[in-house]
Every structure is written in structure tokens, then in C-alpha cells.
Amino acid sequence: MASTEELDAAYARWRYCSTEERAALLARYRATTPFKRAWKIISPKAECAADCERRLAHALWFVRRMIDDEKSKQSVANRKKLIEKLAKTLRTAIDITNQLGRVNDPWVVATKGRLREIEHYWIRACARKGGPRKKHSRRYAVQRARWLLEKYGNRPPTRDRLGKWHELARVLFGNEEADLFDYIEDDHRARLRVPPPKKGRSPQKSILVSWRGETDHD
Fold first, then answer.
1. In the chain, pLDDT over 90 holds for what percent of residues?
2. What's the rounded Cα separation, in Å, for the pair 73 and 137?
3. Residues 60 and 160 in one domain
4. Which is higher by pLDDT, 125 or 210?
5. Residues 97-111: pLDDT tens digits?
6. What is the residue range of 59's domain?
7. Is residue 211 one of the residues assigned to a domain?
8. Which one, of 63, 53, 60, lies nearest residue 22 by Cα?
């Protein structure tokens, strides 16, 4: 049996595959444990089974690709360190040019503007307060799990830690011990277009607050 990496690499060429190759690829996905677990949770009707197979295989492949992308990116701490080093270098260059009496040179003025931009936007963006940053792979797993259950499941998904929505999201994410419930709550609020509940305010009251922020779409 092919490894997950080999299977995902084959799926990445899906659009270039023939009908026979696509059928063979889906058959290989059906043999994997995550697919079997997800299929059992969704329990799609016979008339939509073929479409559900393709959508489920894509979801499993895409979440793993997002996780790999996230692992390859620089950490926030390392990025902040590099940006602070860049800002320090620009300050040194500006100080030296001031000592040389070249204060009004166009490139010096441009460098000062760049330094202000770095200090105001970049460093602040890397020093956001609050909890850990949201992972796109987790958010997508939650969104796709809800969509699969809504489209192919026998019952609509419910916001329950022990419910099918949370269970399926964990399977898509590749870690059935992961806690994705906060992402489920975020997705629910985004669809209602309401902000997160503030401290001291009950969740029921916060739902009545209107919000004009942008929402995520499938």
C-alpha cells in the first residue's frame, strides 16, 4: 500500500488524471484509515456517495497540505527577531549618513520612511497580544467537516464536543485528540456575523450584537 505522502502527491495531479486514474485514486483513499473513519461519521446516502467520496478525499488531502505549509513557515518569534535586526540596521545607516551631513539625500528620506513603517506595522504585527494564533489548517478542517455533514450527512452538525462535527474535524485534521472546539465556536459566530463574547457578557447576549466584519467562506 502506498504511503500517505505518495497518495497525496498523486492526488495533487487530480485535474490531469483520466477518469480511470481518478477512480483508482479514490479507491486507494477509501482504503486509508482516516477515510474510513470520516466515512462512518458522515454516513452519506447512497445517491450522493460518489460525490461525497471525491469531496472527502480532497478535504483530507488539502488539510494535510495546509499543515505541511504551516510547518515550513518561519515561527513568529524568529520573524520578529529578523525584523528587529532589519530595523536596527536601518537606524545605523541613517545615523552614519547624518554624521556625513547627507541628511536630505532622497534615499535617506526613503529609508527613514521605511524604518517608520517597520516600527509601526511589522514589529507590532509580530507582537500581538492574546492567545496563540489561529491555524488555517484547523479552521479549514472545522469548516469542511461542517460542510460535509450539512451536504451529505443525515443530520445537521451540532456544536458539541462529543458531536459528529467535532469528531469529523479531528479526523480531517489528522489528530483525533486535538481540541478544535474553539474553532467550531469561531465558525458558528462567523456564520451568524457576531463578534466573540466579551468578558462579563453572556454568550446569549453577545449573539444579539450586530457585526459588520468580514467572514470566512467555504
1. 19
2. 13
3. yes
4. 125
5. 888 888 788 888 888
6. 4-72+134-192
7. no
8. 53
